[in-house]
Every structure is written in structure tokens, then in C-alpha cells.
Design brief:
Elements (H helix, E strand, L loop, with lengths): L7 H5 L6 E7 L2 H9 L4 E9 L8 H5 L6 E8 L6 H10 L8 E2 L2 E2 L5 E5 L2 H16 L10 E4 L4 E2 L7 H5 L16
Parallel strand pairs: 6-7
Antiparallel strand pairs: 1-3, 1-6, 2-3, 2-8, 4-5
Length: about 180
């Protein structure tokens, strides 16, 4: 008896076309867990982007000297979830009005940022930011950086899926859910 890794239907199905989105919304552990819970998200990895140092370590990023933000690079299936829907999750799961700070964490690595991969993502992020700013949902202006995606440096392995590995449901602040459905 031979076992197969794929069913005949899977073998003939066209490959999934995926896109990438990169978000900085404070400590990347909870942000990663949030995006992993979204249907249509294929993968989410934590890392660093937007800085000047090549291959930075967590310690270097935390020194506030590399210019990197803690980010989550999301690989998603746009036929299931749109970039605009991911933007809504992004806005709803952090405070985009605090400069270089999220909760108890402060420093440029915790800045709110959307690093766009295409001109369409840039336009969608800018339009979404402006609409959110006008919506009255926030008492202060949104300070989220919208910038071209630069090199994504994957964080050390112990940071990947940290909350799941640690058996934690929350990041830093007790009682603050990490997911959009909590």
C-alpha cells in the first residue's frame, strides 16, 4: 500500500497565488498571533524592517540605533482575504496614535508602520489611514508611517510564534486580547 502526500484534487489544483504585507504595530509577538488567526493568511513571520543595519539581531534592534521596526510579514491569499481587510485588523489591534510606543513598550522599534510592497498597497494604506483619521475612532491624529517595504530580516527563531510556544494568550498587558476575535 502506497501513501500519497496529496489527493488527486490537490495535485491538479492550480497553485495558490499569494501576496505579502508587512506591518509594524508594537511588540511583534501579539501582532503575529493576531494575523495568524485570520482566514486566508498562509503564514506570518516576525522580524525587522525599515532600518539601516544588515541582519540585525533583536539586541541591536532594541538598542534603538538600527532604525528597524519590529514587524510581521504576512503571506496571504488575496482570493480569501484582501489587503484592505488586513489593514482593518492592523488598525483595530494597536494604537496608531502613539509615536514609537505601544503599551509599556517604547522606542522606534515599536512604531506603527505599514511597509507596502506594491503601489496598490501604498494607495490602499494611505486611503485607509486618512479614512481612519477622519472617522473619529481616535482622539489623537494617527502617526502611522507608510513606507516602501525594505529588506525583511527574520527574527531569531525563539521569537517565531512566541505566544503559542509559551502557552500565552496575551502579550504584555494582562486582559488585553491579542486577536481580533477575542
Amino acid at each position: 500500500m502506497t501513501t500519497h502526500d496529496t489527493t488527486p484534487e490537490q495535485a491538479t489544483a492550480p497553485p495558490i497565488s499569494t501576496e505579502k504585507a508587512t506591518f509594524g504595530a508594537g511588540c511583534f509577538w501579539g501582532v503575529e498571533a493576531t494575523f495568524r488567526s485570520i482566514p486566508g493568511v498562509i503564514d506570518a513571520a516576525v522580524g525587522y524592517s525599515g532600518g539601516k543595519t544588515q541582519n540585525p539581531t533583536y539586541r541591536e534592534v532594541c538598542s534603538d540605533e538600527t532604525g528597524h521596526a519590529e514587524v510581521v510579514e504576512v503571506e496571504y491569499d488575496p482570493s480569501v482575504v484582501s489587503f484592505e481587510q488586513l489593514l482593518e485588523v492592523f488598525w483595530d489591534n494597536h494604537d496608531p496614535t502613539t509615536l514609537n510606543r505601544q503599551g509599556p513598550d517604547y522606542g522606534t522599534q515599536y512604531r506603527s508602520a505599514v511597509f507596502f510592497h506594491t503601489p496598490e498597497q501604498q494607495a490602499a494604506a494611505q486611503a485607509s489611514k486618512e479614512a481612519r483619521d477622519r472617522s473619529g475612532k481616535h482622539r489623537r491624529p494617527i502617526v502611522t508611517e507608510i513606507a516602501p517595504a525594505s529588506t525583511f530580516y527574520r527574527a531569531e527563531e525563539y521569537h517565531q510564534q512566541y505566544l503559542a510556544k509559551s502557552g500565552l494568550a496575551f502579550c504584555h498587558t494582562p486582559g488585553v486580547p491579542t486577536g481580533p476575535f477575542a
